[in-house]
Specification:
Blueprint: E1 3-8, E2 17-22, E3 30-39, H1 42-48, E4 65-72, E5 84-87, E6 90-92, H2 98-101, E7 113-114, E8 133-137, E9 142-143, H3 150-153, H4 159-169, E10 177-181, H5 185-196, E11 200-205, H6 211-217, E12 221-224, H7 228-232, E13 238-243, H8 252-255, E14 258-266, H9 279-283, E15 288-291, H10 297-310, E16 316-320, H11 324-332, E17 339-343, H12 345-352
Helix pairs in contact: 4-5, 4-10
Bound molecules: NADP nicotinamide-adenine-dinucleotide phosphate and zinc ion.
Zinc ion binds at residues 41, 43, 63, 89, 158.
GO molecular function: alcohol dehydrogenase (NADP+) activity; zinc ion binding
Organism: Pseudomonas eucalypticola
Domain Enoyl reductase (ER): 11-342
Length: 353
């Protein structure tokens, strides 16, 4: 059984600290991956601090994993030793319900298995990518095209697919005016992807100092959402809004910006509810308020190929594993441009010391 070196939290108020555990040896359908980089998602922080009240401890987060294949099982066809590979938010699902049959494993009716924190309907814990290697069923491993910027590809495995999937589902493209709320890890990917899909992109941010970045990343307009006058200029204009904000906030000012039949989709997952929106914004213009969860495995591959074709990667700040707790504090302050990625070499050096 291969020994794994990782960083884990032992309880909700604990900092992440070194932790050793054993991964399974690769079985016939498994791919073993030497992890090179792992992105830092706000969901990691929500989980480590038990903000969703479902955390299994010890908690080893990390679901934006890229690395190199070091072993494959006898039945593995798509990967060989030395290939680049990625792992996102899921490592298994039932494979026989209607959602799995349609390639929407994230909506598995028997509960998918998260890359960390175990199966969603309960069961044994799983340990994520803040670790030196991982063993995953081939079906849940993604192909990564050759790149000289592998670290910046890592965030596509969660931030990329979580924004690509709803943008594709609600048919964002040329002729559509699309709002993105929040310029963080998810938001900056949404801006890049919606722009590449050909939409007119309006970024809504609470941070006036993110204006130049928003435009550089692909937004056509930037609106400071706290400024009612700026918000009023967008009333009834947007076909679709993707809301990535990680904290409870008033949804009404955004719903009022949708056209008739427009939809706002929530992907941000705050620890407590948003204030309930008024029904009048919805019924008078037949608007919809929706939600969306990551994306299926096939769609994740489609997103990776789309990003490769369009030259899209994440804007990252590379950190050492030893800086992870400080990185969480900075993420809470919105002080990250726009995704922290852990250089797993720093973890391996510590393990060897
Ligand atoms: P992040 O990097 O921290 O970005 C969140 C952004 O929200 C901030 O940069 C900020 O943008 C905006 N914001 C406005 N007010 C805020 C406040 N009071 N507190 C925090 N943020 C505020 O987070 P992320 O990694 O993109 O994740 C965003 C949310 O999506 C999290 O809740 C995460 O758990 C969730 N998530 C959901 C899925 C899914 O499948 N649905 C997948 C991954 C993550 P401005 O400065 O521009 O206002
Ligand atoms: Zn995530």
């Amino acid at each position: 059984m291969p020994q794994t070196y990782s960083y884990a939290a032992q309880h909700a108020s604990d900092a992440l600290k070194p932790y050793r555990f054993e991964r399974r040896a690769p079985g016939a359908d498994d791919v073993q991956i030497d992890i090179l980089y792992c992105g830092v998602c706000h969901s990691d922080l929500h989980t480590v601090r038990n903000e969703w009240h479902n955390t299994l401890y010890p908690s080893v987060p990390g679901h934006e994993i890229v690395g190199k294949v070091t072993a494959v099982g006898a039945n593995v066809k798509k990967f060989k030793v030395g290939d680049l590979a990625g792992v996102g938010c899921m490592v298994d699902s039932c494979q026989h319900c209607a959602s799995c049959a349609e390639g929407e494993e994230q909506y598995c009716e028997n509960g998918f298995t998260g890359t960390y924190n175990g199966p969603v309907f309960g069961g044994e814990n799983t340990f994520g990518g803040y670790s030196d290697h991982i063993v995953v069923k081939e079906k849940f491993v993604l192909r990564i095209a050759p790149t000289d910027n592998l670290a910046a590809v890592a965030p596509l495995l969660c931030a990329g697919i979580t924004t690509y999937s709803p943008l594709a589902h609600w048919k964002v493209g040329p002729g559509k005016k699309v709002g993105v709320v929040g310029l963080g890890g998810l938001g900056h990917m949404a801006v890049k992807i919606a722009h590449a899909m050909g939409a007119h992109v309006v970024l809504f941010t609470t941070s006036p100092n993110k204006r130049e970045d928003g435009l550089r990343l692909g937004a056509d307009e930037v609106i400071v959402s706290k400024d009612e006058r700026q918000m009023a200029t967008q009333a009834n204009q947007l076909d679709f809004i993707l809301n990535t904000v990680a904290a409870p906030h008033n949804l009404d000012p955004f719903l009022a910006l949708l056209k008739r039949d427009g939809t706002m989709t929530l992907v941000g997952a705050p620890d407590s509810p948003h204030p309930s929106p008024t029904v009048f914004n919805l019924i008078f213009k037949r608007r919809s308020l929706a939600g969306s969860l990551i994306g299926g495995i096939e769609e994740t591959q489609e997103m990776l190929d789309f990003c490769d074709k369009h030259g899209i990667v994440s804007d990252i700040e590379l950190i050492a594993i030893q800086g992870i707790n400080e990185a969480y504090e900075r993420m809470l302050k919105g002080d990250v441009k726009y995704r922290f990625v852990i250089d797993i070499a720093t973890l391996k050096q510590e393990a060897a010391a």
